[in-house]
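Workshop exercise sheet. Pairs work together: one partner reads the sequence aloud, the other fills in the structure field after running the prediction. Swap roles for the next sheet.
Pair: D.N. / O.F.
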Amino acid sequence: MSRLEELIQELCPDGVKVSELKSVATIERGKRVVKKDLKAEGIYPVFQNCLTPMGYYDTFNFSKSTPFVIVGGAAGEIGFSDIDFWAADDCVCITGDSTMLNKYIFYFLTSKSDFIKANVRKASIPRLPRTVLEGLQIPVPPLPVQREIVKILDNFTELTAELTAELTAELTARKKQYEFYRDKLLTFDVLGGGAIECEWRTLGEVIISLNTGLNPRQFFKLNTDDAHNYYVTIREIQNGTVVFSEKTDKINDEALHLCNNRSHLEVGDVLFSGTGTIGETAVIEEPPINWNIKEGVYVIKPQQNVLNSRFLMYILRTDTLKSAIAKKVAGGTVKSIPMAEMKKLQIPIPTLEEQNRLVDVLDNFDAICSDLNIGLPAEIEARKKQYEFYRDSKRLEAVCVGARRG
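Structure field:
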């Protein structure tokens, strides 16, 4: 019999009281701070609309070891701070009363993550109603039982983090190996002891057009009731293709038409992130019937009799082209490469036959790396699922057996 089972049998053999979260904890919204008062670094992180600090403040309004939930922006995300922090107005903090451990509340909230996120109101800024948190039914076992549950989950969290770090390092090493091979293969002075014949031309000389998508602003709204088409940002450009997810914003048919009037997406076009995180690429392989791109994602139409789309994608990923692109980047807080400067990039153009051969080699190698990109993250995800099982399993919910309502 485990220590947890012993404690349950000793302290709550007939089950435990289940109460609304608001009756055993103080649920308090944070206070707004003025951005100009924030610092780039400091002692007290400020949490606003995501789990990444928006900056640092010279004081704090919540003590360390306090769980919190984001209710605006990345609504539904659940955090726990090991240091004193400032909670801004889109951050709700939960502090247990004398019968509750804050870390126990945190683990309880994470076990209800799917339910919490399912109750987020979809809008231009997603919102989580505070009442969703207040009404959560939480089992309230004796403090020794809570401590043992926290101890088990803390230990498993630590082991999971260590294994995740090892697997992530392995994945990083494989990616670097691939990038080295790709760059070596796409070096056009010498390859395998012999020169590859090619000419260097500007991008503008070998493409039909370079366009971009459309920013909502005054033109349309995201995630309206009639929105069923995807609005692609840099987040959806992954591993050379476009990947939709539940986080992908949506637009209606009218907005889709407006976006396409500017981007003119077609099969064979190369997508390039020209703003923010610059340099992510993908090739459109299937007709883009139900999606389009935002402003800042560029669409490049190669002259197909001169330039293989996938060859261009691979070239744009090389260190040589990344370095050339970096020299043309402009802007203040949000960096971008002007399309006019993009067209001036010097691109190596071997024969189409040679381009096709190189693409075949790189596609095969990319497939191997994709297996790694799938396999190792899948292993990481498996460890997370294992952790979630221990967190949510009936063994830890045994405290609720025969529970009586508070």
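Discussion prompt: The radius of gyration is 26 Å. What would you look at next?
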